Amino acid sequence: LTDAAEEELCKEVILVYYHLLTAVEPLARTQLDEKIERWMHTNFGAKIDFDIEKTLQNLTELQAEMQEKETGQGKRALLTRQPDGSLKVLPLPQAKQLIDHIWDNAFAYANKQAGP
Question: What global pTM score does this model have?
């Protein structure tokens, strides 16, 4: 049951990330929700009521302090909400770096060298 729930969460995250990444214009939450629901209906014949808010929260929470070459250190999030209400995701290369960084630092003890 846990595996199925995690798989569904992963699918939802991928759907949101993909649609934001490939959008021609910035999308607000309601526009994104409608776009995903239309996409599911067009591609799979499934009429769904996509619960987008939890997925947006999960993507926003995927963040870490990152060392930037040009801008120094700063917190990076996979998804940010812009002042105009639109949503923005990191481009794929930066998203992969962020996820890799989060994974590599998930367990602090794994990165510490063993004592004598």
Answer: 0.81
CA–CA dist 37, 44 (Å, integer): 10
Burial of 44 (0-12, 13-18, 19+ CB in 10 A): exposed
Label residues 68-98 b or e (16+ Cβ within 10 Å = b): eeeeeeeebbbbeeeeeebbbbbeeeebeeb
Which range has highest mean pLDDT (5-19, 32-46, 53-67)? 32-46
The pLDDT value given to residue 105: 84
Residue 7 pLDDT more than 50?
yes
